[in-house]
From TrEMBL:
Pathway: Purine metabolism; GMP biosynthesis; GMP from XMP (L-Gln route): step 1/1. It comes from Clostridium scindens (strain JCM 10418 / VPI 12708). ATP binds at residues 143-149. Catalyzes the synthesis of GMP from XMP. Its EC number is 6.3.5.2. PANTHER family: GMP SYNTHASE [GLUTAMINE-HYDROLYZING], GMP SYNTHASE-RELATED. This is GMP synthase (glutamine-hydrolyzing). Gene3D superfamilies: 3.30.300.10, 3.40.50.880, HUPs (3.40.50.620).
Length: 430
């Protein structure tokens, strides 16, 4: 990494990422490290220009105040402490600094250069990946999600045909999603892409399975088996590419931060596959991953794609999956996305989708009684997906979507809008 860096030492504050983000937004690279980093480890980091000790409410863990090694103060870096009254540096703030104070520290005292940008980041990573991989090969599970797509584009730029991408279509993708992965990566970027249509295999395994957890387990487990089978067919693969991003690392818990969730990616691959990992995005926040994707030339629809659960439409076709209801979810979801885009809501709403429950209700079509499925629309806003509020979608937009679904989607006679925030409801239904 050739770019100047401000190191934030994590004393348990929940605001570490806020400070790191602010510094990166000033064009200076910033990383969060554990408070008990040794002076040797700190000196081993590239281009450190200054240190921020970030205290906060969690600074006392199990009754013991956590602190940094006193030797860190003697390394010669400018140090500032936020909400850490016992810090042994001259500059102590009581609260998070305002932009001007932070800028003064970063540029005047640390003399950091604003050289953090996507062009430099990509150039750095291309060089690092080339060095790590040499003339060997990298395998990548390319789901078509933002992270795996951006990793694929970056690795392609670094090592070209030494990258082998595997796209497993589990039959639970949204409309045209697998087609788009093939179009972009195989036809436009000429990546070495293995496309596996495993629809029948997944739907076969899922037949009659009602329990949401059981469904998730089958989809996750089967995904790994299909991927492993493809990997074993290939010769000479030494590396596994992963779309790990910075929040995955932070949320896995540094030593002082409370653990939010364990970090897992394609994880669960059998150990005897013995891959070394290549994770070129592991320093990026989500919006930086998107900026990286755009810089690498990926289409905006791929880069600004809304979050989509690993088990795909499988958890939106409620209960035991049937082909008719799966089709109803896929088609209604496509209509919802099209209409949200037309109304400009795709840029405003965090996540929106449809689900189809496994029961029917009575209705009337062509003057005759019908007994058909229901589509439920859900549109939510959130910052971290831990809590969520509903989007108050304009009535006319909802009416148009409803009319289109009723007219265009087979086996559906009713459309509802989900008004439930999280909690008590979760974002997904299963
Ligand atoms: P819940 O339903 O727990 O969802 O409120 C929170 C967010 O996580 C997404 N989600 C998943 N993402 N794999 C994923 O990568 C999964 O298995 C999964 N399940 C839920 C969900 O879409 C929402 O954004």
């Amino acid at each position: 990494m050739k770019q100047d860096m401000i190191v934030i030492l994590d004393l348990g504050s929940t605001e570490n990422t806020v400070v790191a983000r602010e510094i990166r937004d000033m064009g200076v690279y910033s990383e969060i490290h554990p408070h008990d980093i040794t002076p040797e480890e700190l000196n081993g980091l590239d281009n450190v220009k200054g240190i921020i000790l970030n205290g906060g409410e969690n600074r006392v863990v199990d009754g013991v105040a956590v602190d940094v090694s006193p030797a860190l103060y003697d390394l010669g870096y400018p140090v500032i402490a936020i909400d850490h009254p016992t810090a042994k540096c001259a500059q102590k703030l009581d609260a998070l600094p305002d932009e001007a104070t932070l800028k003064k520290f970063v540029f005047d005292e640390c003399k950091a250069e604003p050289n953090w940008n996507m062009k430099n980041f990509i150039a750095d990573q291309v060089e690092l990946v080339k060095r790590q991989v040499g003339d060997r090969k990298v395998l990548l599970a390319l789901s078509g999600g933002v992270d795996s797509s951006v990793v694929a584009a970056l690795l392609l730029k670094a090592i070209g045909q030494q990258l082998v991408c595997v796209h497993v279509n589990h039959g639970l993708m949204r409309k045209n999603e697998s087609e788009s992965v093939v179009e972009v990566f195989q036809n436009q970027l000429h990546a070495n892409l293995i496309y596996v249509d495993a629809t029948e295999r997944f739907l076969g395994k899922l037949e009659g399975v009602k329990d949401p957890e059981e469904k998730r387990k089958i989809i996750g487990g089967e995904f790994i088996r299909v991927f492993e089978e493809e990997a074993r067919k290939l010769d000479g693969i030494d590396f596994l590419g992963q779309g790990t991003i910075y929040p995955d690392i932070i949320e896995s818990g540094t030593k002082t931060a409370k653990m939010v969730k364990s970090h897992h990616n394609v994880g669960g691959l059998p150990e005897d596959l013995q891959f070394e990992l290549v994770e070129p995005l592991k320093q990026l926040f989500k919006d930086e991953v998107r900026a990286c994707g755009i810089e690498l030339g990926l289409p905006p629809h791929m880069v600004y794609r809304q979050p989509f659960p690993g088990p795909g439409l499988g958890v939106r076709c409620l209960g035991a999956i049937t082909r008719d209801r799966l089709e109803a979810v896929r088609e209604s979801d496509a209509i919802l996305r099209e209409e949200f885009e037309k109304a400009g809501l795709d840029k405003k709403v965090w996540q929106y989708f449809t689900v189809v429950p496994d029961f029917k209700s009575v209705g009337m079509k062509n003057h005759a009684r019908c007994f058909e499925y229901m589509v439920i629309i859900r549109a939510i806003n959130t910052i971290d997906a831990m809590t969520a509020s509903i989007e108050k979608v304009d009535w006319d937009v909802l009416e148009k979507i409803t009319n289109r679904i009723l007219a265009e989607v087979e086996n559906v006679n009713r459309v509802c809008y989900d008004m439930s925030p999280k909690p008590p409801a979760t974002i997904e239904f299963e």
